[in-house]
Amino acid sequence: PTMEETDREAVATAVQRVAGMLQRPDQLDKVEQYRRREARKKASVEARLKVQSLINPSCSVILRTLNLGGNEELRKNHLLITLREVAGNLFFSLFPGAFIVLYLFFAFRLWCFTVLFALCLSVPEIVRETQDLIERGELLQAHRKLMDLECSRDNLMYEQYRMDSKNTHDMNLIHTYFGDMQKLSEELAKQLWMVVQRSLVTVRRDPTLLVSVVRIIEREEKIDRRMLDRKKQTGFIPPGRPKKWKEKMFNILERTVSTRIEGTQADTRESDKMWLVRHLEIIRKYVLDDLLVAKTLLDQRFPPHYDIFNKLLNMYHQALSTRMQELAAEDLEANEIVSLLTWVLNTYKSAEMMGNSELSPEVDVNSLDPLISQNVVDQLLSKYMSTLTSNIIGWLRKALETDKKDWIKETEPEADQDGYYQTTLPAIVFQMFEQNLQVAAQINEDLKTKVLLLCLQQMNSFLTRYKDEAQLYKEEHLKNRQYPQCYVQYMIAVINNCQTFKESIISLKRKYLKMEMEDTLSSSHTNMDATLDIIAKEGCSSLLDEVFMDLEPHLNELMTKKWLMGSNAVGTICVTVEDYFNDFAKIKKPYKKTMTVEAHRRVVVEYIRAIMLKRISFKNAEERKEGAERMIKEAEQFRFLFKKLAAGSGEDTEGLCDIIEAIAEVIKLTDPSLLYLEVSTLVSKYPDIRDDHIAALLTVRGDASRDMKQTIIETLDQGPSQPNPNYVPIFKEITVPTLTVPKLLK
């Protein structure tokens, strides 16, 4: 704007100010007072402008002096001359009026030149002193000197900024001259961060040092705030501000916490199979100890608004979360997955760690976020179940292979406390199941149930293989009955294992399965029981086959001329059966009872089969009487034997031998006219007797004609049948040879 426009604006502003002063009549009395006040303001502005015109060139001279080469004495002389000129010009231009001179001297910061003068001359010396203080660990004093240096530099730069904000050359000149001061600041910061890194140790050994560090950081925070406020007002902020040392302190603490967590892994899987368990235990101990120190000691050394304990708590939680996620991403083995999940889901919030009573009420475990997400937990559990499935299949296969090696040993298997033969297979299998269930229970109920279902599912498949291997064992033995030497004893152990497996399955379900889950396993349990019964039944059958293979030559003597002449075949049969049953006494009760009944039944069946083979046909009544009495006597021998073998079982063993006696009565009958009546009585008792059985029986009698046989058979077919409801058919197993005698047609 032109001078005329400026004058007009000034007049308009003056009119407006006067109008504002004289709005009421009583203000006219104060006109003289207003005039004097405005005159003082005018004089003040004019004086300020004059001082500024004197100071500005002198500041430039000082800056140029700072840049002079040569020694320190030369710079001192230049500064003294400049300062005298400034002070002299200022004094003489403003004199007279000593009051105004003094006012202007302070108001416009003439004092800064004297201070700057002294400091500028002593900067190198102060830098050296500050460096020494830092090295001696006297951090508070060092920081005080550093603050003085920074204050001098900042004020000088501020004055230069006010004079000429675009003069970067002079700004750089100041910055360069105070360059060593920046290095001091960095060196001091290093010392502070070293103390901060070891704060949990320092607070116990030298709490005063930690307090000094916190005080220094607080000082810097105040200077930062002051500089930022001035920047808002003037636009100027010194280089290096804001330092944000408080923020850096928390960053250092955060990195320290992360490093402490990561540094606890002392071993690898290759060097120690328990590496993860050790790693997690060290973490637990370190974190708990650190937080207890932070709560009881560290919290008292920091201002309340730092909220140091909660910040540290969050840092540890975040560092742990990061570490657990890193571990979860590794290729963990099944046991390692369990260790990790147990620690994350249970240990972390337990009384052994975050739930420790000494940490409450500051630490509320219910408010802590999960260390790893549910998605990661699910992935780990899925991987665990997959790995566990493969492991269990492998373990079961290996256990069975090991057990099979025992079957061919030349020494008898071990017996339990009750004397029953057994192998270690059930104990190994269920110990493995038990261990995995105990591990799963540490994580949660759901995983425990899943592992139990998996164990029983694999058990089902395993029992099928067990059945097949037992069958192969039998078949191999039949190829050479001398091998294995302890075949009978190990087959007994296999049978007993079936009962042990049953009991162990029930025990496992009772211990680890909730009642409401029973239905989900009922079909699986039924299948396993059925498979075990088949294994046991086939085992018992193979043992009886062994008995009857030894009995075969003696059974072949029955109902022959030799037998009739006084053979001791039945006596030998009884002794042989009893001898075998001395070993069979090592079979557990449910199967031993079945074994005894089956042996009894098979002996009777073989005896009756010997009759139906028609090896002998009695020539006269005397032979029939002698043969029948022998049959009755031998039936009594069998009855006595199996009553002895079944002692304590409560089993009725007489009914089967009654069949032999009933047949003997038909043979013993002396009056042929009563033959039909005797045969019909026999048929009514044992309705599964076929026509060929009756024909074979009459052939053995030796006195029934073909027509008589046919008449009796035809008459019997027309008669009613009243079988005993408890009778178990036995004749249906007996085949009558048809090559020697043609089948009788009705």
UniProtKB/TrEMBL annotation:
It holds the Pfam family Sec6. Keywords: Acetylation, Cell projection, Cytoplasm, Exocytosis, Golgi apparatus, Membrane, Protein transport, Transmembrane, Transmembrane helix, Transport. GO terms for molecular function: SNARE binding. It is found in: Cell projection, Growth cone; Cytoplasm, Perinuclear region; Golgi apparatus; Midbody. The keyword Transmembrane helix applies. GO terms for biological process: exocyst localization; exocytosis; protein transport. The exocyst complex is composed of EXOC1, EXOC2, EXOC3, EXOC4, EXOC5, EXOC6, EXOC7 and EXOC8. Interacts with EXOC3L1. Interacts with BIRC6/bruce. Interacts with MYRIP. Interacts with SLC6A9. Belongs to the SEC6 family. This is Exocyst complex component 3. The lineage of its organism: Eukaryota, Metazoa, Chordata, Craniata, Vertebrata. The gene is Exoc3.
